[in-house]
Amino acid sequence: MPDRPSARRPTAVVIGASAAGLFAAAALAEFTDVTLIDCDTMPQGPQPRRGVPQASHAHLVWSGGVAAVNDLLPGLVDEAVASGARLVPIMGGMVSRAPTEVWFRRYTSTHHRNLVCSRSLFDHVLRERVLLDPRVQLLQGTRALGLEGDANAVTGIRVKNAAAEVVLHADLVVDASGRGSRAPAWLEELDLPATEVREVDAGVAYATRRFKSPGRTSSMRFPLVNVQANPAKAPGQGGIILPVENGWIVTLSGTRGGEPSGDADSFIDFALSLGDPIIGELLKEAEPDGGVVTSRSTANRRHYFEKMPRWPDGFIVLGDAIAGYNPVYGHGLTVAAQCAVAVRDVLRSASLTAHGTARRLQRAAARPVGAAWELAIGQDALYPDATDTPPTLAQRLLARYVDKCVKTGAANPRALGALLDVMSMERSPARLFSVGMLWPMLIGRKQELLLGPPLRDDERDAVVSGPK
Question: What is the pLDDT, as a whole number, of residue 4?
Answer without folding.
Answer: 43
